[in-house]
Amino acid sequence: MAEKKGIIEEDYVFEFYEEDYAESLEEEIPQVVEEYNEIHFEENLNDEQLEIVSNLKGPMLVIAGAGSGKTRTIVYAVAKLLLKGVKPNQIMLVTFTNKAANEMIKRVEILLGKRPKGIWAGTFHSIANRFIRKYAKILGLKPNYIIMDETDAKALMRLSIEKADVKDLDERFPTSRMAKDILSFSINCNKTIRDVILWKYSQFDSEKIIKKLEQVFKIYKAKKAQDNLVDFDDLLIYWNQLLEERSIAQLIARNIKYVLVDEYQDTNHIQDEIIYKIVKQNPSRNVMAVGDDAQSIYAFRGANFQNILDFEKKFKNCKRYSITYNYRSVPQILDLANDSIKHNERQFKKSMRTTRSSGILPFQVNVGDEIEQARFITNQILKLRSNGIDLNEIAILVRAASHSLRVELELRAKNIPYEVRAGVAFFERAHIKDIIAHLRIIENPYDEVSWSRIFSIIQGIGSSSGIKIFEAVSKIEHPLDALINKMFYAEKLKGSRISKEGIRNTISYIKNLVDFTAEDNPSEVIKNLISVLEDHLKSRFDNWQERIEDLNQLSIYAQNFPTIRKFLENLSLNLSYLESKTVHLGDQTEEEAPLILSTIHRAKGLEWRVVFIPMLCEDSFPSSRSIGNPDTFEEERRVFYVAITRAKDQLYFISPSIKHTYRGPQIIRISQFISELAPKVYRKSSVKLISKKGKKKDIKKDLFKSALDLL
DNA sequence: GATAGGGTTGTTTTT
DNA sequence: CAACCCTATC
Question: Which helix (H) or strand (E) is A584 found in, with range?
């Protein structure tokens, strides 16, 4: 089977951000009149959009519904600013993913015929990182700090919990994941630990636990400082802190004259504050916030769509614009979306206006179980393909990564090329993280999380020996050199009972790392590390061959980076186009662009002609965890709304009636999100795909035929 | 005292 | 299927 995991090279265009912004701050760059293409704004924008692009001044709030050409408006706004003579490095463009930023810049480039270099474009986190690297010293950080991802942060939190002797408590203590979430909420939403507990984790509402938690967080913070590590929240905290420093805030503000923020409904308190601090430094207060409260789906990460509402209060004389025409979906899909979202009581009432001519009603299909669901979806996709719809115009959007499993198997069986954007990211897989841990130690030998991964690989060293070795090593100059020296164990680890075998294995293992430096070529180093890790993988995993193949892919990917340092920097923030995905290319000779299988969250901002939404049944979508709390339940409905509004022409809801749980099969009802809809906004049908004899029956032939005829 | 391995648990969404 | 807890073994 021609299967490629992880990486599609042709997709990958690497960019070093530093080159773009190297000259950015401090000195004023002499004004160069750029030669750009002329743009006919009136021809390419509708009245609402043109109005916005023609009035780029002062604070602006743009409420842009799904499919309204929001991205187009932002792209033209940036182009307009550049044409007016604003320099690229005076523009800050905050987007929800770095990929989105790259795509917007690319579109600006196409419009202008020239690449604008130096725009401060990216996520809050990646822009923050650029400032923090530059001013690390002021913040008391070493400039070569390493950014932990969520997995690392959780691991460090677990170490902190262990150190705080939580076992002394006779009450149940939050898990490392919960603890990390509690801390994150408190930072991102500007709340005390106690408030967060009362708000989201009332089961831990006890003085003892809160006190202990605060102690754990102190340890966690100290560990980060000691290990030269920074987590995602820190990036925001430090950026915010930099803006408190008057001189630096002024320096930044003098250079950044125009701020554009996309997806403002998904900003949290601290991000909102950062924007405010930057904008207020500049007398003209040029800021454009773009968002749609109906598409706010990141409250679980601290986002609050209230930020959109309060925006006008915060910025006096803020002008408000709406883009209400929808260019994406046929009226039937739009009607359904409007019909669904109106059930949210805490949502602002508004409706999108259609511009497209009539299409077909969305389908709701009842199936037996998940296997039948997978068969229906794949069969229908094959039918669509044979009717001339390219696979890359079709998407299957799931609420949770686990919903995609069955479908994936069926796509594979039918040899349909697909790309998965869900589940454990490539760079988060355990064996990938193991290799990266080695690289991190080469860059920063005081990284506790990475050490603990490495120690768990070395035979004879467990968690307690690992902690002891790290403690000894963290106090000395050259940890790696010490670790290959027998004397070190005799002198510094006298009291601890580390087995002879453990010491011997550690010495021979560390010898493999000791000659590398952070300036080495990452691809070469990874190749070496793979041979070091091979035995370990073979002994622990049945699928070790697959895992080694993953590691080889990682090594190929690393060829794009000259040094380990640059490689690591890009991994943690996902600055590149390389996304975690699994690609199954099928076996046809001509390469066909694959179908997308994605979570709804990751499908934000994207669109397809045909969208399938599986698992529209009780407990799955809406997720059983969201029930009972109006806030989370309404957010769940917004997730549904986002999924619906990705579709241009055709939409399929699929509802299994039997779900296989670990307790065996269970009969489940249809999703509330379907049953609450007005019957006229969708077309209901049941499909039995294959009879027991293997003969097709009961397929409502003309139903699907009519669907295609109308396209 | 510490490690390795077996059995059991339970799974939203992500920068 | 990975992260956790418990226990047999070194």
Answer: strand A582-584
Query: Measured between alpha carbons, how far is A652 from A441 in angstroms, rounded to an integer?
Result: 49
Measured CA to C1', the nucleotide nearest A177 is C3
Q: Say how far A457 CA is from C10 C1', in Å.
A: 19
What are the tokens at A309?
């509402």
| Separation in Å: B6 C1' and A109 CA | 59
CA angle A210, A212, A217 (to 5 degrees): 95
Q: What is the pLDDT of residues A549-604, one digit of tens each?
A: 888 878 888 887 888 888 887 776 665 444 444 455 555 545 778 898 888 998 88
Provide the 10 A C-beta neighbour count for residue A42. Answer: 11
- A327 burial (CB, 10 Å; 0-12 / 13-18 / 19+) is middle
What is the greatest pairwise CA distance in chain A?
82
E strand or H helix at A466, and its extent? helix A463-473
User: What residue type is A274 in one-letter code?
Assistant: I
> What's the predicted TM-score (pTM) here?
0.82
Q: Strand B closer than 7 Å to the CB of A172?
A: no
Torsion on CA atoms A427, A429, A430, A436, rounded to nearest 10: -10
- Cβ contact A175 with chain C strand, < 7 A: yes
- Among residues A654, A685, A686, which one has the least CA distance to residue A670? A654
Is A336's CB less than 7 Å from nucleic acid strand B? no
Transcribe A165-192 into DSSP letters: TGGGSSS----HHHHHHHHHHHHHTT--
Q: At what angle do helices A448-457 and A430-443 cross, to 10 degrees?
A: 120
Alpha carbon distance A191, A658 (integer Å): 42
- In angstroms, the CA A126 to CA A120 distance is 10
Is there contact between A468 and strand C, defined as CB under 7 Å from any strand atom?
no
